[in-house]
Structure formats: structure tokens, C-alpha cells
Design goal:
Chain lengths: ~150, ~230
């Protein structure tokens, strides 16, 4: 089974489709909410890793060699697309876990005095309809304890 | 460039590309750190040139393990190109005769050509690419622009229309560069600049390094077929 799965993952690399940017699909944004309990109902959603207003040319040059934060963010975009795509329940669970793990890591690193006990994320997809940009909430995750081991 | 030199140069470039990728994973989670530390060490050995056939094989196995950990590529096309290069290198080392070795390495060159041509084809048949709307969408709402200020480019439709056509024409015409070694080198310089601009605008640094890694295969292929 594992071998079959590996071959299935490898095949697109051996016979690539090369259809980069064939069409511009709805684009995911990950938003998270910090909660004081599992039962909290009023939620404030914040964008996870909002992009900076401006990136200098020097920084772009440095990122040619060191760009882990952005590459991880692109991986999370793939995870978000897998969750709402036609994926198996196992893949959806895996993608949800990957997003949980990285949000939690950011929370623990950046918010030393974090008081929230739980958190949750949702996926908002942005797309153009005519000339307007529309946002649609496509997925709301389970609620996860900040201190849980599940997302490690 | 002869086949042996092209293969060796590909291995060295692949080693550097893997070191760059691996270092980015060393500061995060322990399961990733272990895998990418192993990849870093193997990449160093590949550059040094010790038992390269075995090192390529081990790197391929490690690549498959990484593919399983992330349940797919971590970095989309860049990871797929890495696995393609590794697979072709492994086959080239395993090949029983020079003829099969050429076929294995030639497949990499062919895929590199297709990577540009098919990308151009899927764009030119899409009306939204032809009228510049697709590139406007990329800047306006896709996840790729590295800063909010870059999103303002979506307000420059004429610029984006011309950029769209430059990209489409370059990608579609890329196979014609094979007619001479000079035209190929010029095309590869343009291609590298294209990847560099994608790295600057969209943060796709790994694409730049891994596509360049495949360039020796096409330089060898051109001289093998056309010289």
C-alpha cells in the first residue's frame, strides 16, 4: 500500500504536466482565531502570515538563498488547496495537521505571553467574479488546544 | 559538452540546490530536520564526487521519503523537477550501455524543453492569458506576490499584457533555440532571468536553482543532436 502510494506521488515528477499557471484558480488565505475555551463563540479572525507591505531588492536577493518562511507559506497554500480539492479524508486530515502545526509553532514563537488556550483556523478563498473580488469561507477547522501534542 | 561532463555538472549543481533547500528546513520541526540534515550531507558528498551512483540513489530514496512526509511535493514544481533530475541521473548511472545512458539523460533534456513549451501552450490557448487578465489576477489576488505593494502592478494592464505575451512567446519559441549552441545559450540566459524575476516577485527561489541544474542536460543534448 505504501509502495503504491509512493509510486502515485512520484509519477507526476517522472511524467510532469508542466501546466504552470494554466488558469488562475481561487486563492486561499489562512485565517486563525485565538480562543479562551473550546466553547467560545465570538471569534476574531486574523490573517496568518500576512505578506509585508514592501520587500526591498536587497531582501529579494537574500531570499534567493534563504527563504524558509515564504516556502513554508507556499506549502500551506498547497495544503489549503488539498483540503478543499478532491482529496482523500487521510490527505485532508494530513493537510489540516500541517496547518495546525505551523500556526501553533508561529503562535508559540511570536506570542510569548499567549493567554489563549485554543485556536482554530479557516480557509477563505479569493477569486474574481467579473470585475469584483469575492471571498468565500470554504473550510473551518476543528478547535485545537494550543498545548496539545496532536499537532506536533 | 560531453555526456560525462554534463552528468557531473548536473550532479554538482543539484548538490548546491539541495544544500540551499535543506538549510531552510534545519530550523523547524525535528522530523523534517533529520531528513534534511541527511539530504544536506548526501548533497555535500555528491558535490565532492564520492560514489556518485550510490549517492544519487540514496538521495532519490530520501526524496521519496520526503514526498511521503508531506504527502506530495513541499514546493510544487521545484520538488518535482528535483525528483525528475535525480531519477534521470540514477538511470544514467544504472544504464548498461552508453546508448541507454544517453536516453536516460536525454529524457531530462526533453522534459526541460517541454517544461517551457507546454507552459507556453497552456497559456496561449487560454483567452485570459492572451488578453493579460490572467497575469492581472496573479498580481491582484493570487498567493504569490511577495508584498502588498507588488499587487499594485495589477493596475497596469498594458504592462501586464505585454509581459504576458513576452512570457508566452518565449516559452513557445524555446525549442527553436536548439538550432545552434549560441541561440541555446542566449535562450538559457533569458530563461534564467525569467526564473530570477519569478524568484524576486513570487518568492520562487527554489525554482531558479533547480531549473538551472537541468541546463547542462540540454546543452549536451543540443550538441549531441545538432552538431
Amino acid at each position: 500500500m505504501k509502495l503504491f502510494q509512493t509510486i502515485k506521488l512520484l509519477l507526476p515528477a517522472l511524467i510532469p504536466s508542466w501546466d504552470f499557471f494554466e488558469s488562475i484558480a481561487p486563492s486561499p488565505r489562512i485565517q486563525f482565531s485565538l480562543l479562551n475555551s473550546e466553547k467560545q463563540t465570538d471569534k476574531h479572525w486574523a490573517e496568518f502570515r500576512p505578506r509585508p507591505q514592501y520587500v526591498s531588492l536587497i531582501k529579494m536577493l537574500k531570499r534567493m538563498l534563504w527563504n524558509p518562511w515564504w516556502n513554508e507559506s507556499l506549502f500551506l497554500v498547497s495544503c489549503a488547496e488539498r483540503i478543499v480539492g478532491n482529496s482523500s479524508p487521510e490527505l485532508i486530515l494530513h493537510s489540516e495537521q500541517e496547518i495546525f502545526k505551523r500556526i501553533k509553532n508561529d503562535l508559540l514563537q511570536k506570542h510569548q505571553s499567549l493567554t489563549a488556550s485554543h485556536f482554530q483556523f479557516r480557509l477563505v478563498f479569493v477569486q474574481r467574479q467579473g470585475k469584483e473580488l469575492k471571498e468565500e469561507v470554504a473550510f473551518i477547522s476543528r478547535i485545537q488546544a494550543v498545548a496539545s501534542e496532536e499537532s506536533q | 559538452m560531453n555526456l560525462e561532463t554534463a552528468i557531473r555538472l548536473t550532479e554538482i549543481l543539484l548538490g548546491f540546490a539541495f544544500i540551499q533547500q535543506s538549510i531552510e528546513h534545519l530550523t523547524v520541526f525535528s522530523n523534517e530536520r533529520r531528513l534534511f540534515l541527511a539530504r544536506l550531507i548526501l548533497a555535500l558528498l555528491l558535490i565532492i564526487g564520492i560514489q556518485t551512483a550510490w549517492i544519487n540513489f540514496l538521495l532519490l530514496l530520501l526524496g521519496l521519503a520526503i514526498l511521503n512526509v508531506f504527502q506530495g511535493p513541499y514546493n510544487g514544481g521545484a520538488d518535482r523537477m528535483s525528483l525528475l533530475i535525480l531519477s534521470c541521473l540514477c538511470l544514467a548511472h544504472l544504464a548498461p550501455t552508453p546508448h541507454w545512458q544517453e536516453l536516460a539523460f536525454g529524457y531530462l533534456a526533453l522534459q526541460l524543453i517541454l517544461s517551457y513549451f507546454i507552459s507556453g501552450w497552456v497559456k496561449v490557448v487560454n483567452p485570459e492569458w492572451r488578453n493579460g487578465q490572467a497575469l492581472r489576477d496573479v498580481f491582484q489576488f493570487s498567493a504569490y506576490p511577495v508584498s502588498e505593494s507588488l499587487r499594485q502592478l495589477s493596475q497596469s494592464p498594458r504592462l501586464l499584457l505585454s509581459m504576458s505575451w513576452w512570457v508566452i512567446l518565449f516559452e513557445l519559441l524555446f525549442p527553436l533555440a536548439l538550432v545552434s549552441s549560441t541561440s541555446l545559450i542566449v535562450a538559457l540566459i533569458f530563461a534564467a532571468m525569467f526564473h530570477l524575476s519569478n524568484a524576486f516577485l513570487f518568492g520562487l527561489n527554489r525554482f531558479f536553482w533547480i531549473w538551472i541544474t537541468a541546463y547542462p542536460s540540454i546543452i549536451w543534448f543540443q550538441s549531441r543532436i545538432f552538431s
